[in-house]
Structure formats: structure tokens, C-alpha cells
Amino acid sequence: MSIEYLGLSEINGPLVVLEGVRGAAYEEIVEFRMDDGAQKIGRIIEIYEDKAVIQVFEGTENMSLSNTHTHLTGHPMEVALSPEILGRTFNGIGQPIDGLGEIVPEQNLNINGLPLNPVSREYPRNYINTGISAIDGLTTLIRGQKLPIFSGNGLPHDKLAAQIVQQASLGENSDEKFAIVFAAMGVKYDVAEFFRRTFEESGVSDHVVMYLNLANDPVVERLLTPKIALTAAEYLAFELGMHILVILTDITSFCEAMREVSSSKGEIPSRKGYPGYLYSELATLYERAGIVRGGTGSVTQIPILTMPNDDITHPIPDLTGYITEGQIVLERQLHGQAIYPPINVLPSLSRLMKDGIGKGYTREDHQDLANQLFSCYAKVSDARALASVIGEDELSPLDKRYLVFGNAFEKEFVGQSETENRTIIETLNKGWQLLGLLPKEELDRVDTAILDKYYRETVETAQ
Question: Quick one: 127 exposed, middle or buried, by C-beta within 10 A (0-12, 13-18, 19+)?
């Protein structure tokens, strides 16, 4: 029997308290109706005795303690899904905003996801080509991986995200089905329009599903957007057998929304005012990536987060680093030198890279080349530090060659245009071309047979 409750006992920001509740469940969806006919929805986030604390998605404006009719739906929040969602744009709670009508659902799935038995997971293999050398060559993205991008305010992570969406593929020879789920949380209207326009103009929007939560949308909706996007990704991957790349930007907005709602609930804050369950909430999102044994699809994640004050020890990047399998770090100094994308390769890594590259995946020299580029670029930092003390003219000939290599590496390997889509072979060849700026005896991280096959010294460029 459906029961409707009249009146509320308390309103506090986006939260309301309903007393005398029977049979309510955590995460259950609640419908509100006011005397003027306006309707809102919310979800139960806390229950004790006969009281239920409810988050109102659209905010509590125009709601009063006496004029509100509350109806418990008996189910958690669900999202309507079908193959039609490809090429569509939705708001932060999964409602279409592209003017193309409602989705005719094949399934309505719980946005909190289904528990996945760890034993049924398959180890990630194969790589996803992004067309960006610093990622493909040195921090390769593997299917089923979660690889975040650590950025900062003012850095071009939005451009990088758009470029990845436009260029990402399973490789030139793959005929498997591939699509992208893109979720933006707390973005300004002009940023949302940038993404929408870029995807349309580049012709990739037909295999992109977009979920956009704008900065002026209710804060509570921000907590749902990534869950809805990941539910759509799981449907496409595990029901339709597609390989799905999920891009979530900006995780920092999600965490700040969590902090705001936690504060409204009167919870005891932890580091920097964030709730103590920040780790488990992030893990709930990130762990919804992977491959299920016996299936043909996969879910790969690239969460993007802006580090407050560029502080990589801040709770959000700190906890994200614990959960995910590596990170791609954008650096302000490279951005100041007009290098795009400004990826600092030294603190960047992909922990699953070794299992999805090499012979049979990319090329047999990939791992050795990446190791050598890392090693040589680390020595560039030492040479630059020494030059700042004694002057560049006083450096040894070898240190000068390292400086030449470092500048070329940043401008030609890391740096590329926003429209340049490099194949993995072009990326690897570019790496060997740069290693040719250094003497062969300096390349001590490469197998001798591979070194003999690919190394060509370019002395005239180094002079």
C-alpha cells in the first residue's frame, strides 16, 4: 500500500527531515508535491528510528513544513537506458536536454551499480590509443584501467579531455565496438558548450553519451552525475558488449559537493573539511571500471581532477592515487612555455602499462623505449639544475646534449597540436628520433638487439 505523508518536520539547506516514516529504505527515491502543483524528487540518505533525512535534488526553495506532500517510491534511483543513448545529451540526473525526446528504455538500472565479484574480474590487457604521445608512449592507457589526470585551475584539462574524446580508439586494426561516456560536474555553461560544439563539429558525437551538470544546477545533483554516467557505461559494456571509455570531469567538484552536503548534515569533518567517507565514496566510483570474465566489453575510466593550489598532497588527489592505477600530471611550468599538452612525464605513470604493450599489442620496443625516455629526461633535470649554478657554457659536452634532448623532448614528443592524432608507431618512431640526439652508450635501459634495430644517431641536430 502506498502511503503519502503531509508536512515536514525540518528543512536545512538541500536536506529535509520527515518523521513518522514506516518501511523506508536507504537510497530510496522520494517524490515531493507542493500545494501549487510543483514537483521535486529526492533520496533518503539517513534513517534513524522513524525519521528519514532526504536530499532534495532540485533544492528546497518553495518548500515549507506544512505544504509538502511526500511519497516514498519504494525503489532506489534508476536511469532509463537503451542503445538510443548513444549520441544523446542529458543533464546531471539523466534527463534529455538535447530536444530529441525521452529515451524509450530497454532497462531501468539502479545508479548505484551492482556488486561485482572480484573473482569474476579479468586482468586488463590491450591498450586504448589516444593519439597523444605523452600518454600512448609513456603512460599507456589500458582497457579496463582507471587512469586519472591531475590538473590545476587554468590548465588546459578541458581541451585535453575534448581531444581524447575526439581521438580515442582501440587501434587501427580493431573492429570492436567502441564508445565514450562523458560526464561533466559543476562546469560553467561556456565550458559545457565548448564540449558539445567540439564533439559535434568533429563528427564524434554519434558514439558519445554526454551527462552535463552545470555550475548553477543544484549541488546535490553533482553527487549523482558520475553514478548515472557509470551506470550507462556498464550497460553499454556488459549488456551490449562494447568497450567504453568514461571521462569524468571534474572530480574536485563532486568532492566539494559532498563536503557541502556533509556539512549540512552536521557530520564531523575530516581533512580539509571533507567527510571521513571521502575515500570510500571515491573508491565506489573508481572501482566501477574493469572487465568481466566471459564478457566482450570493458569500462575504462579517465577521471579528471583539479588540485587546489596545485597541491598533489591534497586529500582528493592523494586518495585518488591510492585507488587508481597511476596518474597523468599536468604541469604549470610547461603550460607557461606554451607546450600543449603540458604533461610532466616524471611523476606520471601507468601501473598497468607493462601488460598491454609490447609485441602483439603495440611494438616490441615500446617498454624499453619508454624506460629509456624516462631515464634520459630525469638526467635532463640534473643538467638544468647544474646549468643554473655554473652556467650553460661551463657544462660538459654530454650535459649540453642532454639539454638539447630535453628541449626537443618537451617540444616535439610531449608537445603536439590540439588536432594532431599520432598513431602508436609515429609516437614510438618520434621517441627513437629524439634518443638519436644522445650517444648510443648512454642508452643503458634498452636491450642490445632492440637498440641495434632502432637507434640512429642524429649528431648534426645535437651540435
Answer: buried
The confidence band for 433, taking pLDDT boundaries of 50, 70 and 90, is very high
Question: What torsion, rounded to 10 degrees, do the Cα atoms 332, 336, 339, 340 define?
Answer: 60
Give the amino acid at 257.
Answer: A
- 300 has pLDDT over 60: yes
**pLDDT tens figures, 57-84:** 888 888 888 888 999 998 898 999 999 9
Find out whether 108 and 94 touch, Cβ atoms under 8 Å. no
Locate 278 and state its grid cell.
Answer: 571521502
CA atoms within 13 A of residue 374's CA, in its CB half-sphere: 18
Q: For residue 336, which phi and psi values (nearest 5 degrees)?
A: -65, -20
What is the pLDDT, as a whole number, of residue 2? Answer: 66
Long-range contacts of 316-321 (CB under 8 A, 24+ apart): 316/251, 316/252, 316/255, 316/274, 316/278, 316/282, 317/148, 317/150, 319/278, 319/279, 319/282, 320/148, 320/150, 320/251, 320/282, 320/286, 321/148
Task: Give the whole-angstrom CA distance, residue 238 versus residue 260.
Answer: 34
Q: C-alpha distances in angstroms, 266 versus 254, 275, 278, 348, 460?
A: 19, 10, 15, 38, 67
| Of 285, 282, 295, residue with least CA distance to 143 | 295
Cα 376 to Cα 373: distance, rounded to the nearest angstrom: 5
- Is the dihedral angle over the CA atoms 67, 69, 218, 259 positive or is it negative? positive
Query: If DSSP codes are grouped into helix, strand and coil, which group holds residue 244?
Result: strand
Report the C-alpha gap between 185 and 182 in whole angstroms: 10
Q: Do residues 150 and 312 make contact, with C-beta atoms less than 8 angstroms apart?
A: yes
Please give the Cα distance from 395 to 327 (Å, whole number).
34
**Residue 122 DSSP label:** E
The pLDDT value recorded for residue 155 is 96
CA distance 78 to 132: 36
3-class secondary structure, 105 = coil
| Grid cell in block for residue 1 | 500500500
Measured distance CA(460)–CA(463) in Å, rounded? 5
Distance (Å, whole) CA 25 – CA 74 = 8
Instruction: Please say whether the beta carbons of 181 and 245 come within 8 A.
Output: yes
Could you give the C-alpha distances from 159 to 166, 195, 341, 418, 422, in angstroms and in order? 11, 9, 9, 8, 17
- Pull the grid cell for residue 400: 649540453
